[in-house]
Specification:
About 35% of the residues lie in helices and about 30% in strands. With about 170 residues, it is α+β, with helices and mostly antiparallel strands.
């Protein structure tokens, strides 16, 4: 069961039915989709995805997924789940643009790493960051991530596969 988490400024809250519109709005923002390395999905598909989190992911305990809240406002999305890129768990975060540049991305990643170590017993976690996403790559560097390899998409886009110890100070 995905637990609620707390960092200094962020509340990680498992999604509730009333969070659907905020989730959909975040993943309809062109800039957010771009930096997540995905196409902007139709609203109807995002609503199906949100409902699947509530009806499949949570009940079957498939992976951990949260809405991120800052001062009572929906700030973004976070996940910690097994990845097919390596034998391990991937950290995924997406913040709404109005929350960029405040250190909240680093705080979210540190919260995910703490959860990975304390609740899942993981020694290492992974991230996938687009090669053009210099802000996120710099954040990962500061947090101690190391580059493992480049993953080249069918469209020629490059994503950096990164790893970080959950035991290192971040």
């Amino acid at each position: 069961m995905t637990p609620a988490l707390r960092t200094e400024r962020l509340d990680f809250i498992p999604y509730r039915p009333e969070d659907e519109d905020a989730f959909v709005a975040l993943l309809r923002i062109e800039e957010v989709c771009h930096w997540m390395g995905q196409e902007r999905a139709p609203e109807s598909e995002l609503r199906v995805l949100f409902r699947a989190i509530r009806t499949d992911v949570y009940p079957k305990d498939l992976f951990d997924v949260w809405g991120l809240w800052h001062d009572g406002r929906y700030a973004g999305h976070a996940e910690l789940k097994k990845t097919g890129n390596v034998d391990g768990h991937e950290l995924i975060t997406a913040l709404a643009p109005e929350f960029w540049g405040r250190g909240l991305g680093s705080e979210a990643v540190r919260g995910l790493l703490r959860h990975a170590a304390e609740h899942l017993g993981l020694k290492e976690a992974y991230g996938m960051v687009g090669a053009e996403n210099t802000a996120s790559l710099e954040m990962c560097r500061r947090l101690g991530f190391r580059h493992l390899r480049d993953v080249v998409g069918e469209d020629g886009s490059v994503t950096k596969l990164l790893a970080v110890s959950t035991e290192e100070p971040t």
